[in-house]
Amino acid sequence: MFNLPTRNLAAETKFQQLLSLGMPSGDYAIFGSAPLWVYNITQELHDLDVIARGAAWEIAKTKGVLQPTKSNHGRELILFEGNIEISNKWITGEWNINELIDTSEIVQGVRLVNLEYIIREKLINHRERDKEDLKKIEEFISLNRLPIPLPSTVRPLWEEKI
Predict the structure, then answer these.
(1) What digits encode the pLDDT tens for the residues 111-154?
(2) Over the stretch 49-69, which tens digit does the pLDDT of each residue have?
(3) Domain total for the chain?
(4) Helices and strands, counts by H and E, the chain
(5) Can you give the residue range of the structural domain that contains 75?
(6) Residue 89 falls within a domain, yes or no?
(7) What are φ and ψ of residue 106, in 5° steps?
(8) What are residue 50's DSSP bridge partners?
(9) What's 52's domain CATH number?
(10) Which InterPro entries does this UniProt record tie to the protein (predicted)?
(11) DSSP assignment of 81-121, as one string?
């Protein structure tokens, strides 16, 4: 959508592992902080949080042991020693994963949930790392002159005393 420079995903082990699962790309997307790493907004890639539906979810279920998500709003599998977490819902259960997947950006053949949704998720979570990420996202949007509206509630999050 924005045609921005990204990291080389084929060179990253976690993306190699994800692609080795053979899931159809139209049925999953990466959420969480990994898209920020792809766009060089953050420097660390801890894991890939993947939401899956349909054929991708059916394939994923054959790769490991299903367990309840941490939030108990769906099921998940943790693969490759924690490098990849695949779930059929997202944290609160309020997210429509079909919308998240259908509106995702395709980067080097991999779907990434749009920054607008990542901003909202970080506002909901309100963890220390989310506050830091929100500041970096705002800088990235400003630097690249992206037409992504930032909610007025973003700035107070990182201006709060820690």
Answers:
(1) 999 998 999 888 888 788 888 999 999 899 888 888 777 665 55
(2) 999 999 999 999 999 888 877
(3) 1
(4) 7, 7
(5) 9-114
(6) yes
(7) -100, 120
(8) 30, 86
(9) 3.30.460
(10) NT_sf (IPR043519)
(11) GGTEEEESS-TTS-S-HHHHHHTPEEETTEEE--HHHHHHH
